[in-house]
Amino acid sequence: MDKVLVTGGAGFIGSNLVHRLVNKGYNVRILDNGFRGNFDRLQEHLNDIEIIQGDVRDPDDMNRACKGIQTIFHLAAINGTRYFYETPGTVLEVATKGIVHGIDAAIRNDISKFILASSSEVYGEPANIPTPESHPAVISDVNNPRFSYAGGKIISELWVLHYGKLGYFQPMVFRPFNVYGPNMGAEHVIPEFVQRIRSLSHESMDTRIKMPIQGSGKETRTFCYIQDFIDGIMLMWNHGKPGEVYNIGNDLEETEISDLAKAIASLLSVEITLAPTPLRVGSSVRRCPDISKLRALGFCPKISLREGLKPTVDWYLQNN
Predict the structure, then answer these.
(1) pLDDT tens digit string along 48-63?
(2) CB neighbours (10 Å) of residue 320?
(3) Which pLDDT score is estimated for 70?
(4) pTM to 2 decimal places
C-alpha cells in the first residue's frame, strides 16, 4: 500500500479522509499545526498514523512530512467565512506559501501524485447552475477580503496543474461544495444555525423565536454529507484522470437557506420566524455543482440532507 500524507489531517475533511485511508490499509502521515484542526478527531487511529505537528508555511516542516510519501492530499487551509473577512492575509499566506512549499517538497521527495483540495468558492457568482468544472474561476473584486480564500485556491490550482504538466507528479484537483457532518467545526452555516437557535431560545425561554439571517433566506446551497464526500475523493483518486478538476458535492437537493434553518429548528424543537438582513458583498446567491464528471466514474451521493442533518445536529447538542 502507498504511504500517504494528508496536510490539514486534523481538520474536518482531513480527519475523515484519514479514517477512510487507515481503514483501507494505507500507511498514513498527517501534517497539521492545530490552528483549526483538532487532533481529538483522530483519537480512534492515534496508534495507526504518524502525526507531524507542523506548518505548511514552513518549508522544513513540509519537506520532513513528504519524506517517503507516494501520494499527498493537500487539504491544509484556513476555511470559515469569518476568517476570510477578518484575517485575509493569513488565509492567503497559508494557501500560497503552503502550495509553493508543498510542490517543492513533493518534487524533492519524488512524490508521484499530488491531490489538491480547492473550493467551489472559485466560481464566484456562477453564471451556470448547476456549475461545471469548465466554468471560469473568477475573482470579481480584489479589494473584497471575502475572496482571499478563493484567490488562494485559484493560485494553488495553477501551481499544481501546471507543475504536473511538467512531469514532476500526477496532479488532481477537487472542488468541494458545502460538505457537512458531525464535528465539522463552528465556522459553517449548519453549526452556526444550531448555536444561534439554541442561544435565542434559551435567552427568550421560548420555543418560538425570531432569528436574524444573512440575506433573504432564498439563497440556495447543496449539501454533501461527509461520508459521501470521502467516497468521491477516493473514487477520483483511484479512477480519475490526472490533470483533471472534479466537483464533489450533492446535486440532488438545492436547498434554500431558510428551509435549512427551519429544518434545524425542527430538530431542536423550536419554531422560528426569520428576520432577513443584507447579504454580505461577495456572497453567492446560488451554488449547485454539476458532478457529471464524477458520476461518470460511478459516484452517487446516498445521504439526503434530512438524513444527514440529524446526526450532525445531535453531535452539536451533545458536544456544546
Answers:
(1) 999 999 999 999 999 9
(2) 10
(3) 98
(4) 0.96
Q: b vs e for 117-141, b when ≥16 Cβ sit within 10 Å of the residue's Cβ?
A: bbbbbbbbebeeebbebebebebee
List Cβ neighbours of 173 (8 Å cut-off, separation of 6 or more).
115, 116, 118, 157, 160, 161, 244, 245, 246
CA angle 12, 14, 20 (to 5 degrees): 110
The tens digit of pLDDT for each residue in 162-208 reads 999 999 999 999 999 999 999 999 889 999 999 999 999 888 777 88
Q: Which amino acid is at 223?
A: F
Contacts of 192 (CB under 8 A, 6+ apart): 186
Contact status, residue 122 vs residue 157, Cβ threshold 8 Å: yes
Angle 240-38-15 (CA atoms, 0-180°, nearest 5)? 20
**CB 40, CB 253: distance < 8 Å:** no
